[in-house]
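Table S5 (text form). Sequence records supplied for joint modeling of the two-component complex.
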Amino acid sequence: MNRRLLLALGILATVGLSLLPFLWFVLTSFKSQGEIEAAPPAWWPSGSLGFYRSALFDHHLFDYMLNSVVVAGATTLLALLLAIPAAYALARLTIPGKQGILAVLLCVSMFPQMAIAGPVWRLLDTIGGLNHRWGVVLPYVALTLPLAIWILASFFKELPPELEDAARVDGCGPWATLFRITLPLATPGIFTAAILILIYAWNEFFFALLILTQPEQQTLPVGIALFQGEFTMPWGELAAASVVATLPLIVVVLLCQRWIVSGLSAGAVKG
Amino acid sequence: MAELELRHISKSFREQPVLRDISLQVPDGSFTILLGPSGCGKSTLLRIIAGLESQTSGQVCIAGTAVDHLPPAERDIAMVFQQYALYPHLSVRENLAFALTIRRTPRRVIEERIAEAAQLLDIQPLLDRKPKDLSGGQRQRVAMGRAIVRKPKLFLFDEPLSNLDAQLRTSMRIELKKLQQRLQVTMIYVTHDQVEAMTLGDRIVVIEGGRIRQADDPQQTYTAPADPFVASFIGTPPMNLWEGSLMTEGGKTVFKGNGLTLPLPTRLIPPHSTQKSDVTLGIRPEDIALRESPEAVQITGTVELVEDLGADLLLHCRAGERRLVVRTARRADTVQGQTVTLFFPVDKLHLFIDHRRFDPPSATPT
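The corresponding structure-token record, covering 637 residues in total, follows.
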């Protein structure tokens, strides 16, 4: 009983610690300018929507959001499109040095962004990708691919190969097997990978700041960061914009949650 | 005409030979069992027939046509896998329809075939369920149904009953046999279970070490095993075997091995073979008599353990350096530690010379 109590307290403390800054921002977003500056601080907001109005309409938050949707969506689709066949090949085919390939992939994903920022900028400059939304999509895809391939490969490996044999006997070619049998069964893995890529592309700041210098192409994190004026720090608008920027992600994760159930392949083989 | 013909099939995985020169003819409408211990290559052979694996050399012919270049889908075969391999995201109905849908069979025909198979296998109430909601036996039926709806030239089974419990396995075995007799189709069935092999098949192909040891009907495989391996693999408890040599002692031919010396009648010995070093002598546990019988060699043994099987007794005896098992009707007078005289009727002795069966011309095996 005592252990359970301790466990509950521990969980509560951890969750509280992670949620507290976010909670503070949500509360701040509903405050008035006076309440933000009050000392001692006012905990509970009066429920003003002024900052939301200002963030959405004066600071063009919707334009940034549209850019983020395009960039994150394109990154997710493109990364999955490349990761699925790669992961499938790594999981199913006998490739010499397979473990080496996976290890190199892992190493690539650990490169500090700062170290590759220069070369990436030069490269994009050469091919004309600066100040284009596709200019950030390319490095995003490159940076998310290793993780996506790792997640998907481990999912494909767990699928019983007998199912694919059965599909071949039943008349499926490699593509039909992939689309009719393997992919439907790997749905949880695909959704898991997709959400991680989406979160990365949605939140990424550094490359976006570097590559997108025109406000018309900037994504949410960069746009919000640039709310800051020369002499002012608009806390209220920042808080409201952050809440608005986070909401779509929360909605997507909640919607996809039911797809991220593992054990979908139960019943295929002895179990 | 042979439905399936294998011509000199060999298969190696990374220089490691798994199958060596397998040639086999499977007649139309027959139930052929590929039997052998695990790792003998029987499943690989089945996968080669299916086209899921390619042979290193040799040829596979189905209905008189070489199919080596054809993918599994175009060989007109259906396969039932050991782990059922039902598609978990599809309902039973969709599982049954899958292969036909891929082949663009008209909707009406698919419906008919499913209804037919469902009735045959008694799975109508399960059609709208997902595989995960089925019991092991039900999944097994669906897996068979998926093969049946295809109406293929050849049914391949890869140890389909090995995941079921003993009781279910027995009832499914009987159903499968009935099914084959009813459908009159050609089935090839891989198993390591000799009881399944004996009861289901009308032909047993015993495979060991990648080679066919014997291909015969079940009765012949049991009564006249081709070599010591088949003799020991078929039958529970296995045949008692002694390894030794033939030699002449005092004008008589005797078998000597494992501390046992048995005089053998001359007619049992192949001519010019009275001196042979690689000889195995065998007798089945149920063929050993405890009472004097005409024309029998006799030895003395000590009963070390008595196993009561209900209907029979198994006597584990020691004679010479080896143990042997005797199956006998229930006798109250046999107890542990007792010294018994065992009679080996001469016509029940199996003699293997250089690992090949030798049948004396006069005593034809029954």
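Note: Helices of chain B lie at 42-50, 92-102, 107-121, 136-148, 166-183, 194-200, 218-223, 228-233.
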